[in-house]
Amino acid sequence: MGTFNTFYGFDQLRYRVYSYQSNYKRFRDIPETRYEELKNEIHTFINRLGDDYTGLSALEKYTDMLGYISHKITYNHLPYDERIIMLLEACDPEFIHFKKYLGTEKTPDFNEVLAKSVRSELGFYDPKFVGYESDLFSKFFKNKTLLHGVKDDFSFFINPLIDGIDNFKSVKPEDYDRVSKIAQTWRENMQEDDGYLTAYHNVVTQNTILGLKGIREKGIFLVEAIDPELQMLQAFYDCPTVDKLYEQAFQSVGFYSEQFKNLEIKYAKAYKQELAEDPWSIQTKKPSYKN
Asked: Taking the domains of the chain in order of start, what are their residue ranges?
């Protein structure tokens, strides 16, 4: 019943829009002024539609916008990145796809759970929205304010960095001392309760200001700024069940992350070897990490 999808089915509309993806530039060439213009343009168009649009279901609105964007492709030659901005602003202005992606537990059925979660709140699910919203967030929002939950943000942005650190053997002692002093100064001036939130945000978006060189120095800063006593690692060693582990880690550090725990193991092997050996590895009975 939409305005622009009369002659094409849903799959055909998606194909017509996304078949130009090779032209995607991750919004690099779009200034903030143009971003605001595009948002205003799509909202002006929606307001003109009036009841013909507001009476549609979420899925129908999404399909209608695909038709509109397809129309823009044919007649206006609008650049691909600008068409995507208009589609996102019309269909998911609150970045629900991206939020749900960050908050969904990484399990074997992740994609199914994510799709169901998005549909339950938004009324439709488009897997391409996740990547586009992530890029849009990085371009226009990351240096202003965090989009949503602390723990989800931390995992999404920091895990790829942590996973890239194999060890700290290449870090010179003088560089370790320099980064440790930066982290100590940062901790002394930190006023927020969620200190780890700002720590990771600085590493992700402002590492040049901190003077960090390479992922290993970033890893050292994260450990020294967030958990210099390796309390998360100690909780992992001490607690026989995962619920106790989470409880102790949240009390001492403020969060728990498998990736960050693994980073602390690598850090301990380099700088605090008394904590580097997992005590469970030399016993016959491992802890039961079950809720």
From this structure: 10-146, 152-282
Which of 77, 58, 72 shows the shortest CA–CA distance to 4?
A: 72
Four-point Cα dihedral 51, 119, 93, 35, nearest 10: -110
Res. 85 pLDDT band, cuts 50 70 90? very high
What one-character DSSP code corresponds to residue 204? H
The pTM score is 0.52
Whole-number Å distance between alpha carbons of 37 and 76: 16
- Show the tokens assigned to 24: 């995607």
Q: How many CB atoms lie within 10 A of CB 287?
A: 16
Please state, in angstroms and rounded to a whole number, the distance separating the CA atoms of residues 70 and 18.
9
Write down the mean pLDDT value for the chain.
78
How many other C-beta atoms are found inside a 10 Å radius of the C-beta of residue 213? 14
Would you say 248 and 239 are in contact if contact means Cβ atoms under 8 Å apart?
yes
Helix (H) or strand (E) holding 226: helix 214-226
Q: Which residues of 219-233 are buried (b: 16+ CB within 10 A; e: fewer)?
A: bbbbbbbbbeebbbb
Structure tokens at 94: 């609150």
Write down the residue that tokens 């990771």 correspond to: 200
Residue-wise pLDDT tens digits, 133-142: 888 877 776 5
**Length of the chain as a residue count:** 291
Backbone phi and psi for residue 19, each to the nearest 5 degrees, phi listed first: -70, -15
